[in-house]
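hey so u asked for the seq, here:
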Amino acid sequence: MDSKEKISPNCSSLYCEFSHIVTVFFHLTMSQNSQYKEEQLGEIFSLESIYPDELEVLEEEPFHQFKLHVKSEGHDEEEGIGYACDLKFTYTPTYPEEIPVIEIMDDIGLDDEQLERLKDRLEKEAEDNLGMVMIFSLVSTANEWLNNEWDAELRRRDEEAERKILEAEEAESKKCHGTAVTVENFLRWKAEFDAEIALLKKPEKEDKDKKLTGRELFMVDKSLIESDLKFLEEGGEFVNVDESLFQDLEDLGLDDELVSDGSD
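ran it, structure tokens below
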């Protein structure tokens, strides 16, 4: 086609229509993006008024990134009371038509399972508020969730304390009242008791079966000494005596005269 040839009227018309569509789409897109940006800036302005101490803006371009501190009522980190964390939000190009990026940071007292449940709760709340600015709603939801979690933790602690008190009372009651007697535990106790008594009697029986020496007889039974002395005084018949039985006569406590007479 010659460069000097004119574009046919039909081709020129199609080109113009296409250019017009592109231009309208561009302006609509720019207008819509501008609308999202205006909503985002307006929300940031409102949040700065509502949370002057809690809000911290981290980035402004290309989209706002900021965090807010949330906590349960009565939270005291030094005393270990309550839960707390920071919520970090990042706007997307079409927020609030899509949910912002939500992150949980610097949590205090929360475990991994609780953090996961809180994240799920916030994302569900965000989905329910699509099309509207939602940061205030998300922060309020987080505060309420932390309060409920801390209340549940206090109830759990109270129940645990009551359980320990009951266990201590039951243990003390068992000490005072003992164990209820049944046929089974009585027979078991009697068998153990009989076995203990048998062990105690065994040395005694062994001692009785052991033959004592003459000296040991005198030491055990003092009446034997008196009987022998009386016999000697009455002039009893002479009896052969095994002198080995009377070693160390001094230990018997006899008078020297009686010992001498006995020797004669």
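Residues 135-177 form the longest helix (43 residues). The CA atoms of residues 46 and 136 lie 9 Å apart.
lmk if thats what u needed
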